[in-house]
Amino acid sequence: MIELSVVMPCLNEAETLETCIVKALNFMKLHAVSGEVVIADNGSTDGSQEIAKKLNARVITVKNKGYGSALRGGIEAAHGKYIIMGDADDSYDFEALLPYLKELRNGNDLVMGNRFKGGIKKGAMPFLHKYLGNPVLSFIGRLFFKIDIGDFHCGLRGFSKEAYYKMNLQTTGMEFASEMIVKSKLNNLTIAEVPTILHEDGRSRPPHLNTWRDGWRHLRFLMLYAPNWLFLYPGILLFLVGFIFSALLIKSPLVFETFTLDVHTLLYTSTFLLIGFQFIVFYALTKIYAVENGLLPKSNRYNKLFHFLNLEKGLILGFVILLIGLGLSYNGFSNWKALNFGNLNIKTTIRSIIPAVIALQLGIQIIIFSFFFSILGLKNQN
Known about the structure:
10% strand; Spore Coat Polysaccharide Biosynthesis Protein SpsA, Chain A
């Protein structure tokens, strides 16, 4: 039985591939590990496949392009109980895999390397990546998902084959690295971290990584997988600010020493309220879409969502707010009629007209979204 598969994604890595394979094989021989080296080739044209075969590594041809695609192809073809994946550019020492294997043997599902704890050799990481990209994206990942990992983007990491299938990874590009950590946390897998040294890339050509494009893909992934930070929290903030200030301004202007907030501000604050509500609804839609399409795991809280947000409650709330809007509109019309449809005091009239219009919009939106949520939740109903 093969215990360990070392998987390396490969796209024209002829300069460094042999060194990486030899180091991995040396590690297995030195520590009496039953293992294999799997090269997930993504269309190399420089003879990388022949180098790997000569060293008795298994070569898996992956036609779908992308870092994530190559790794998924290699991992799924691997025979080992445990997988350790790493780049084939000689920036990681494949003879120093024992800390990873020990943590996996101890029962951890995912073992991450931390280059900031292990050490980054001179010239091994671009200045922008070292002091901006990696720290910022790792901080966002820790904040959004409450994961105690210091280096989200270390390319050397290990995991069990069983844990890999629980992760249900979907991405094809560089964001695959972030998805693995996020999905491990969302599926309640155990995560450990070990110090890892990053060496200077052994290739003479530039790396495949594109700083801004791939950095954005990582950030986009983190935001889309944390709809609470992208939509819910901003939505709640906008809604509360809009509601509180609108309630105050409907009653009377807010007078300060150097300025006064009046009906013009009321127009903006009531709009904040409406936009905040739309953010909250979009959070719910995003969450439902992600769960129902297997991008996020289903939780008890998710199931409770459909018991709380049912059609009947939504329709009642929507019609009540709609009636409030109609009532305020009728009051405004009555005031105009009392003046024989003559000129109105704009500042007085608009204090009831603005909330009337917002209530009408809010009521209609709640009714429409209630029907939509009900349709989405049909298979969640008993």
